[in-house]
Protein backbone atom coordinates (compact mmCIF):
# COMPACT_ATOMS: atom_id res chain seq x y z
CA UNK A 1 0.00 0.00 0.00
CA UNK A 2 1.23 3.49 -0.88
CA UNK A 3 0.21 6.80 0.66
CA UNK A 4 1.18 10.35 -0.22
CA UNK A 5 2.39 12.53 2.65
CA UNK A 6 1.88 16.24 2.06
CA UNK A 7 2.34 19.20 4.40
CA UNK A 8 0.38 22.26 3.31
CA UNK A 9 2.73 24.53 5.21
CA UNK A 10 5.65 23.32 3.11
CA UNK A 11 4.09 22.56 -0.32
CA UNK A 12 7.32 21.19 -1.77
CA UNK A 13 7.26 18.38 0.78
CA UNK A 14 5.45 15.50 -0.86
CA UNK A 15 6.60 11.94 -0.24
CA UNK A 16 5.21 8.54 -1.19
CA UNK A 17 5.04 6.32 1.89
CA UNK A 18 5.05 2.59 1.22
CA UNK A 19 3.91 -0.10 3.64
CA UNK A 20 7.23 -0.21 5.51
CA UNK A 21 7.20 3.56 5.95
CA UNK A 22 3.63 3.58 7.21
CA UNK A 23 4.30 0.75 9.61
CA UNK A 24 7.34 2.55 11.02
CA UNK A 25 5.60 5.93 11.13
CA UNK A 26 2.80 4.69 13.33
CA UNK A 27 4.63 2.03 15.34
CA UNK A 28 4.36 2.96 19.01
CA UNK A 29 7.79 3.10 20.65
CA UNK A 30 8.52 1.74 24.11
CA UNK A 31 7.75 4.07 27.03
CA UNK A 32 11.38 5.26 27.12
CA UNK A 33 11.27 6.09 23.41
CA UNK A 34 13.26 3.13 22.13
CA UNK A 35 12.04 1.31 19.02
CA UNK A 36 11.77 -2.42 18.43
CA UNK A 37 14.48 -4.02 16.30
CA UNK A 38 12.61 -4.00 12.98
CA UNK A 39 11.56 -0.36 13.23
CA UNK A 40 15.00 0.67 14.49
CA UNK A 41 16.67 -1.02 11.53
CA UNK A 42 14.32 0.76 9.13
CA UNK A 43 14.92 4.15 10.75
CA UNK A 44 18.68 3.68 10.67
CA UNK A 45 18.45 2.79 6.99
CA UNK A 46 16.49 5.85 5.92
CA UNK A 47 18.48 8.06 8.28
CA UNK A 48 21.67 7.14 6.43
CA UNK A 49 20.28 8.53 3.15
CA UNK A 50 20.81 12.20 3.90
CA UNK A 51 21.95 14.67 6.53
CA UNK A 52 19.62 16.91 8.50
CA UNK A 53 20.70 20.03 10.36
CA UNK A 54 18.80 20.15 13.65
CA UNK A 55 19.24 23.43 15.50
CA UNK A 56 17.81 22.54 18.88
CA UNK A 57 18.37 26.07 20.18
CA UNK A 58 16.55 27.59 23.14
CA UNK A 59 14.35 30.60 22.27
CA UNK A 60 16.24 33.88 21.90
CA UNK A 61 19.63 32.30 21.19
CA UNK A 62 19.93 33.70 17.64
CA UNK A 63 18.38 30.54 16.23
CA UNK A 64 16.22 32.20 13.57
CA UNK A 65 19.17 34.22 12.28
CA UNK A 66 21.45 31.18 12.43
CA UNK A 67 19.06 28.88 10.61
CA UNK A 68 18.60 31.37 7.78
CA UNK A 69 22.36 31.61 7.31
CA UNK A 70 22.54 27.80 7.27
CA UNK A 71 19.81 27.65 4.61
CA UNK A 72 21.84 29.94 2.37
CA UNK A 73 25.10 28.08 3.05
CA UNK A 74 23.78 24.67 1.95
CA UNK A 75 21.03 25.78 -0.44
CA UNK A 76 18.43 24.28 1.84
CA UNK A 77 15.03 25.04 3.27
CA UNK A 78 13.28 25.02 6.64
CA UNK A 79 11.10 22.06 7.62
CA UNK A 80 9.19 21.14 10.73
CA UNK A 81 10.21 18.44 13.17
CA UNK A 82 7.25 18.50 15.54
CA UNK A 83 3.58 17.63 15.21
CA UNK A 84 2.59 21.19 16.16
CA UNK A 85 4.38 24.29 17.36
CA UNK A 86 2.06 25.20 20.23
CA UNK A 87 3.88 25.51 23.54
CA UNK A 88 7.23 25.73 21.73
CA UNK A 89 8.66 22.73 23.64
CA UNK A 90 9.03 20.52 20.60
CA UNK A 91 8.50 16.77 20.54
CA UNK A 92 9.67 15.03 17.35
CA UNK A 93 6.93 13.65 15.13
CA UNK A 94 8.08 10.55 13.30
CA UNK A 95 5.79 10.77 10.21
CA UNK A 96 7.26 14.20 9.45
CA UNK A 97 10.82 12.89 9.55
CA UNK A 98 10.10 9.76 7.52
CA UNK A 99 8.45 11.88 4.84
CA UNK A 100 11.49 14.17 4.73
CA UNK A 101 13.90 11.29 4.31
CA UNK A 102 11.84 9.64 1.57
CA UNK A 103 11.30 12.73 -0.58
CA UNK A 104 14.24 12.87 -2.99
CA UNK A 105 12.98 16.14 -4.48
CA UNK A 106 13.57 18.17 -1.33
CA UNK A 107 16.46 20.60 -0.92
CA UNK A 108 18.84 20.17 2.00
CA UNK A 109 16.89 20.03 5.25
CA UNK A 110 17.20 22.50 8.12
CA UNK A 111 15.11 22.06 11.26
CA UNK A 112 14.87 24.58 14.10
CA UNK A 113 13.17 23.26 17.23
CA UNK A 114 13.12 24.47 20.84
CA UNK A 115 13.62 20.95 22.06
CA UNK A 116 14.85 19.46 25.32
CA UNK A 117 17.08 16.39 25.31
CA UNK A 118 14.69 14.17 27.21
CA UNK A 119 15.38 10.44 27.08
CA UNK A 120 12.72 9.69 24.46
CA UNK A 121 13.93 12.57 22.27
CA UNK A 122 17.50 11.26 22.46
CA UNK A 123 16.41 7.78 21.35
CA UNK A 124 14.50 9.37 18.48
CA UNK A 125 17.54 11.31 17.25
CA UNK A 126 19.93 8.41 17.70
CA UNK A 127 17.67 6.05 15.74
CA UNK A 128 17.79 8.35 12.70
CA UNK A 129 21.41 9.40 13.13
CA UNK A 130 20.54 13.09 13.63
CA UNK A 131 23.34 14.97 15.39
CA UNK A 132 21.86 18.11 16.97
CA UNK A 133 23.39 21.53 17.55
CA UNK A 134 22.72 23.76 20.55
CA UNK A 135 23.81 27.25 21.58
CA UNK A 136 24.90 28.30 25.07
CA UNK A 137 23.86 31.82 25.95
CA UNK A 138 23.43 33.80 29.15
CA UNK A 139 20.01 32.89 30.57
CA UNK A 140 19.12 36.35 31.98
CA UNK A 141 19.82 37.86 28.56
CA UNK A 142 17.59 35.31 26.83
CA UNK A 143 14.87 35.92 29.39
CA UNK A 144 15.12 39.66 28.75
CA UNK A 145 14.66 39.04 25.01
CA UNK A 146 11.78 36.66 25.68
CA UNK A 147 10.17 39.33 27.85
CA UNK A 148 10.49 41.84 25.01
CA UNK A 149 8.82 39.38 22.66
CA UNK A 150 5.90 38.79 25.01
CA UNK A 151 5.34 42.52 25.27
CA UNK A 152 4.71 42.96 21.54
CA UNK A 153 3.79 39.55 20.07
CA UNK A 154 0.32 38.17 20.79
CA UNK A 155 1.20 34.88 19.07
CA UNK A 156 4.19 34.43 21.36
CA UNK A 157 1.99 35.07 24.38
CA UNK A 158 -0.49 32.46 23.12
CA UNK A 159 2.26 29.87 22.66
CA UNK A 160 4.13 30.53 25.89
CA UNK A 161 7.06 28.24 26.65
CA UNK A 162 5.60 25.03 28.03
CA UNK A 163 3.40 27.20 30.21
CA UNK A 164 0.42 29.52 29.86
CA UNK A 165 1.16 33.23 29.70
CA UNK A 166 -1.55 35.24 31.51
CA UNK A 167 -3.86 37.02 29.10
CA UNK A 168 -3.22 40.30 30.90
CA UNK A 169 0.58 39.97 30.96
CA UNK A 170 1.11 43.30 29.21
CA UNK A 171 -0.86 45.00 32.00
CA UNK A 172 1.40 43.65 34.74
CA UNK A 173 3.74 46.00 36.57
CA UNK A 174 7.37 45.71 35.57
CA UNK A 175 8.19 43.98 38.88
CA UNK A 176 5.38 41.45 38.38
CA UNK A 177 6.54 40.74 34.83
CA UNK A 178 10.05 40.05 36.10
CA UNK A 179 8.69 37.68 38.73
CA UNK A 180 6.59 35.83 36.15
CA UNK A 181 9.52 35.41 33.77
CA UNK A 182 11.80 34.05 36.50
CA UNK A 183 9.13 31.92 38.19
CA UNK A 184 7.45 30.40 35.12
CA UNK A 185 9.67 30.82 32.04
CA UNK A 186 13.13 30.38 33.55
CA UNK A 187 12.57 26.77 34.76
CA UNK A 188 12.21 25.64 31.14
CA UNK A 189 15.59 27.15 30.28
CA UNK A 190 17.27 25.54 33.27
CA UNK A 191 15.80 22.12 32.46
CA UNK A 192 16.66 22.58 28.78
CA UNK A 193 20.35 23.12 29.48
CA UNK A 194 20.44 20.36 32.10
CA UNK A 195 19.10 17.79 29.64
CA UNK A 196 21.52 18.80 26.92
CA UNK A 197 24.48 18.83 29.29
CA UNK A 198 23.66 15.28 30.33
CA UNK A 199 23.34 14.18 26.70
CA UNK A 200 26.58 15.88 25.65
CA UNK A 201 28.43 14.37 28.63
CA UNK A 202 27.18 10.88 27.85
CA UNK A 203 27.62 11.12 24.07
CA UNK A 204 29.95 14.06 23.31
CA UNK A 205 30.27 13.23 19.62
CA UNK A 206 26.52 13.48 19.10
CA UNK A 207 25.94 17.05 20.29
CA UNK A 208 27.60 20.16 18.89
CA UNK A 209 27.74 22.81 21.62
CA UNK A 210 28.21 26.36 20.34
CA UNK A 211 28.79 29.38 22.54
CA UNK A 212 27.09 32.69 21.91
CA UNK A 213 30.25 34.68 22.56
CA UNK A 214 32.17 32.62 19.99
CA UNK A 215 29.32 33.04 17.51
CA UNK A 216 29.44 36.81 17.97
CA UNK A 217 33.20 36.90 17.51
CA UNK A 218 33.36 34.62 14.45
CA UNK A 219 29.86 33.75 13.17
CA UNK A 220 31.02 31.97 10.02
CA UNK A 221 33.21 29.64 12.07
CA UNK A 222 30.25 28.72 14.31
CA UNK A 223 28.09 28.10 11.24
CA UNK A 224 30.77 25.94 9.62
CA UNK A 225 31.18 23.94 12.84
CA UNK A 226 27.43 23.29 13.06
CA UNK A 227 27.07 22.22 9.43
CA UNK A 228 30.14 19.98 9.54
CA UNK A 229 28.91 18.32 12.70
CA UNK A 230 25.56 17.57 11.06
CA UNK A 231 27.28 15.93 8.08
CA UNK A 232 27.32 18.68 5.46
CA UNK A 233 30.39 19.45 3.40
CA UNK A 234 30.56 23.21 3.01
CA UNK A 235 33.47 25.63 2.73
CA UNK A 236 34.35 28.34 5.21
CA UNK A 237 33.97 30.92 2.44
CA UNK A 238 30.40 29.75 1.75
CA UNK A 239 29.61 30.19 5.43
CA UNK A 240 31.08 33.68 5.43
CA UNK A 241 29.01 34.62 2.37
CA UNK A 242 25.86 33.20 3.97
CA UNK A 243 26.38 35.22 7.16
CA UNK A 244 26.94 38.39 5.15
CA UNK A 245 23.82 37.76 3.08
CA UNK A 246 21.58 37.33 6.12
CA UNK A 247 23.17 40.09 8.16
CA UNK A 248 21.65 42.85 6.04
CA UNK A 249 18.17 41.41 6.73
CA UNK A 250 18.71 40.42 10.35
CA UNK A 251 15.69 42.35 11.62
CA UNK A 252 13.45 40.04 9.58
CA UNK A 253 14.86 37.02 11.41
CA UNK A 254 14.15 38.19 14.96
CA UNK A 255 17.74 39.22 15.51
CA UNK A 256 17.55 42.08 17.98
CA UNK A 257 20.43 43.75 19.74
CA UNK A 258 22.12 40.60 20.97
CA UNK A 259 23.61 42.58 23.84
CA UNK A 260 25.36 40.50 26.44
CA UNK A 261 24.59 41.55 29.99
CA UNK A 262 21.28 43.24 29.17
CA UNK A 263 19.50 40.98 31.65
CA UNK A 264 20.87 43.22 34.39
CA UNK A 265 18.51 45.94 33.17
CA UNK A 266 15.48 43.67 33.55
CA UNK A 267 16.08 41.63 36.69
CA UNK A 268 17.08 42.46 40.25
CA UNK A 269 19.76 40.86 42.41
CA UNK A 270 16.98 38.76 43.97
CA UNK A 271 16.07 37.38 40.55
CA UNK A 272 19.70 36.56 39.75
CA UNK A 273 19.98 34.73 43.07
CA UNK A 274 16.85 32.75 42.24
CA UNK A 275 18.17 31.84 38.80
CA UNK A 276 21.42 30.62 40.35
CA UNK A 277 19.43 28.58 42.87
CA UNK A 278 17.47 26.93 40.06
CA UNK A 279 20.68 26.05 38.24
CA UNK A 280 22.15 24.59 41.45
CA UNK A 281 19.62 21.75 41.32
CA UNK A 282 21.61 20.30 38.40
CA UNK A 283 25.27 19.68 39.33
CA UNK A 284 26.10 18.79 35.75
CA UNK A 285 25.63 22.47 34.85
CA UNK A 286 28.56 23.64 37.00
CA UNK A 287 30.95 23.74 34.05
CA UNK A 288 28.45 25.74 32.00
CA UNK A 289 27.59 28.22 34.74
CA UNK A 290 29.90 30.94 33.40
CA UNK A 291 28.16 30.71 30.02
CA UNK A 292 24.67 30.68 31.49
CA UNK A 293 25.01 33.40 34.13
CA UNK A 294 27.93 35.67 33.17
CA UNK A 295 27.41 39.38 32.56
CA UNK A 296 29.07 40.54 29.35
CA UNK A 297 29.46 44.19 28.46
CA UNK A 298 29.65 44.24 24.68
CA UNK A 299 26.87 43.96 22.15
CA UNK A 300 26.98 40.96 19.84
CA UNK A 301 25.71 43.41 17.24
CA UNK A 302 28.88 45.46 17.66
CA UNK A 303 31.11 42.41 17.42
CA UNK A 304 29.42 41.16 14.25
CA UNK A 305 29.68 44.60 12.63
CA UNK A 306 33.39 44.65 13.47
CA UNK A 307 33.78 41.18 11.96
CA UNK A 308 31.96 42.22 8.78
CA UNK A 309 34.33 45.13 8.36
CA UNK A 310 37.46 42.95 8.48
Cα end-to-end separation: 58 Å
Report the major sheet. 3 strands, parallel
* Broad shape: globular
Q: Give me the strand/helix succession.
A: EEHHEHEHEHEHHHEHHHHHH
State the total count of DSSP E strands: 7
CATH-scheme architecture: 3-Layer(aba) Sandwich
The radius of gyration is 20 Å
Low-confidence stretches: 296-310
Number of domains: 1
The CATH class is identified as: Alpha Beta
Structural class: mainly alpha
Total of helices: 14
Q: Would you tell me which CATH topology applies?
A: Rossmann fold
Mean pLDDT: 88
Approximate strand percentage: 5-15%
Summarize the helices and strands and which ones pair or pack.
Layout: E1 3-6, E2 14-17, H1 19-25, H2 37-47, E3 52-55, H3 63-74, E4 76-79, H4 94-102, E5 108-112, H5 119-128, E6 133-136, H6 139-152, H7 154-159, H8 174-202, E7 208-211, H9 212-217, H10 219-230, H11 236-247, H12 269-280, H13 289-293, H14 300-309
Parallel strand pairs: 3-5, 4-5, 6-7
Antiparallel strand pairs: 1-2
Summarize the structure.
The chain is mainly alpha-helical and 310 residues long. It has one domain (3-309): Rossmann fold (3-Layer(aba) Sandwich), CATH 3.40.50.300.
Report on the structure:
- There is one protein chain.
- With 310 residues, the protein is mainly alpha-helical.
- It contains 14 helices and seven strands.
- The N and C termini lie far apart (58 Å).
Amino acid sequence: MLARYWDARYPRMSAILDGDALQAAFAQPNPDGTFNDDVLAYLRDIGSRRSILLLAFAPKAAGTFFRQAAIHAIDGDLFRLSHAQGGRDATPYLPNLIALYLDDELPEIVVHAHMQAFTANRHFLLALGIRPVIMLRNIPDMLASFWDMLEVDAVARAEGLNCQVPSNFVEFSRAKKADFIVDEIAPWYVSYFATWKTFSDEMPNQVCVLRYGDFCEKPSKALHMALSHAGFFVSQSNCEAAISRVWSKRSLFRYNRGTEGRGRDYFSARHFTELSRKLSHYPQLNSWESDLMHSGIESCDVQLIRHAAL
